[in-house]
Design goal:
Helix 5 runs antiparallel to helix 6. The longest helix has 28 residues. The protein is mostly helical and 229 residues long. It is built from 8 helices and no strands.
């Protein structure tokens, strides 16, 4: 019993010293100790929160979760990779400049390193949060890949296939291809999908940001190419 009391007293004394040391360290650093595990749940929780806050266009929440990750010792290269993905997945062609900004931030992280690269990441996070959002290209490639998985890959029309090898001409490869630059407006009405997939569509731009302009362009192109409706 005396031995247990002795161990108990030692444990309580150690705990008090640890608490005092933690308080002292926080006072010295003027910051709170963070519960953050780069290999555990916190790692996933905070990057998930950052993505969703940025997708939701809340710039302050985006910067807050970024700050938590940086203060918690998260690898800034991991954050930068997620920003590059986000720029295409959630902003897309609503603001094509977003991918340029995210890539520039990722390059700056490699060149500058912590702590200064926090400035580059903050600039990118603010831009991504405030940018108009579109996942049209994301859903388009997902639909196209799903179609290929379910139906296989259809061959392109012969006039679109490579003609730079011996015997290609005899097989009709490249024969009859209409060069768009020689056509009015730089657009031809030649069918470019595999014959079995004529009229199949994947990409539908949204009415936000620059993608509104792309939508108008796409509608014009479809009419010009005889694909309206």
């Amino acid at each position: 019993m005396a031995l247990l009391d002795s161990y108990g007293g030692l444990f309580r004394s150690t705990a008090r010293r640890f608490s005092l040391c933690l308080d002292d360290a926080e006072d010295a650093l003027q910051r709170k100790a963070l519960s953050y595990d780069r290999q555990g749940d916190r790692h996933y929780d905070y990057i998930s929160a950052w993505i969703k806050a940025t997708r939701g266009s809340d710039v302050d929440a985006s910067l807050y979760y970024l700050a938590v990750m940086l203060e918690g010792g998260e690898d800034p290269r991991f954050i930068a990779r997620r920003m590059v993905i986000f720029a295409s997945e959630d902003v897309g062609n609503a603001d094509p400049q977003a991918l340029v900004v995210a890539n520039a931030a990722a390059a700056a992280v490699d060149r500058v390193g912590m702590p200064e690269c926090a400035l580059n990441l903050a600039q990118a996070a603010a831009y991504l949060a405030l940018a108009p959002k579109s996942n049209a290209s994301t859903t388009a490639i997902a639909a196209a890949m799903r179609h290929v998985r379910e139906h296989g890959a259809k061959l392109p029309p012969p006039y679109l296939r490579d003609a730079h090898y011996p015997g290609a001409k005899a097989l009709g490869r490249g024969q009859g291809y209409v060069y768009p630059h020689d056509e009015p407006d730089g657009v031809s009405d030649q069918e470019l999908m595999p014959p079995e997939l004529r009229g199949l569509r994947f990409y539908e731009p949204v009415e936000r940001g620059f993608e509104r302009t792309l939508r108008e362009r796409l509608e014009w192109l479809r009419k010009r190419r005889g694909q309206a409706g």
